[in-house]
Amino acid sequence: MTSTFSLSGRRIMVTGANTGIGQGIAVAAARAGASVLGIGRSSMDETAERVAAEGAQFTALSCDLADAAVARSMFDQAWEHGPIDGLVNNAGIIRRADAVDFTEVDWDEVMDINLKTLFTLCQAFGRKLITGDRRGKIVNIASMLSFQGGIRVASYTASKHGVLGITRLLACEWAAKGINVNAVAPGYIETNNTEALRNDPERSAAILGRIPAARWGRPEDIGDAAVFLLAPASDYMHGAVIPVDGGWLAR
Fold first, then answer.
1. Which string of DSSP letters, residue by residue, matches 36-64?
2. Catalytic one of 156, 188, 228, 248
3. Containing H/E element for 21?
4. What count of Cα atoms within 13 Å lies in the side-chain half-sphere of residue 177?
5. Residues 103-132: pLDDT tens digits?
6. Which pTM was predicted?
7. Domain spans of the chain?
8. CATH second-level architecture of 11-243?
9. How many H-runs (helices) and E-runs (strands) does the chain carry?
10. Distance (Å, rounded) from C-alpha 103 to C-alpha 95?
11. In angstroms, rounded to a whole number, what is the distance separating the alpha carbons of residues 15 and 132?
12. Is 156 in the active site?
């Protein structure tokens, strides 16, 4: 009997798969039996090796996700090589500055990748599924800052609030069409985006002091949650967000 947590025979696209959370999701999906399409603009050789070690196929697609039109074209080209069963919108960037000093460039660059391209890829995927009468799953990577304000990350906070809103909107529109749209909200994870925080002894100690699990999260913690939302086990979940935060929001 096939497990309802299996992704066997499914083709999963993961953006930002070169490192961190994206890499963790790609490896977890491979372990669950999926073939993985990794999207990014830097080398994904390490991810390819880790996916291969799980006995799964990995296809690397280079794309500058800062340009929504380029992202849409990439998706259409990827579909030509075979239908995609699941889309994980993980790619994202962050810029840090006091709100009074925040630049328009830092605002636009973050919003373009974190929110505009995310919606563009959801839209492209949804169109393919609806016109082809196919089922599929979208997992958007939200954040603790989908619920909280944070400090010195104005565009990131705005974008992640937007990710949660778009997730819920698309779930309302597409649930009856056989498309599940859900989100994972990572807490403080060991990635490039949190390197500055982890290297600041005072900020790191303050963060760890509030996490009941008393550790930073790891990319694989997010990967396993994403697999659940991509698998048949979550077929009746629509518009949900799963915090994977070591208990941060419960504090």
1. EEEEESS--HHHHHHHHHTT--EEEEE--
2. 156
3. helix 20-31
4. 19
5. 999 999 999 999 999 999 999 999 999 999
6. 0.96
7. 11-243
8. 3-Layer(aba) Sandwich (3.40)
9. 9, 7
10. 10
11. 23
12. yes
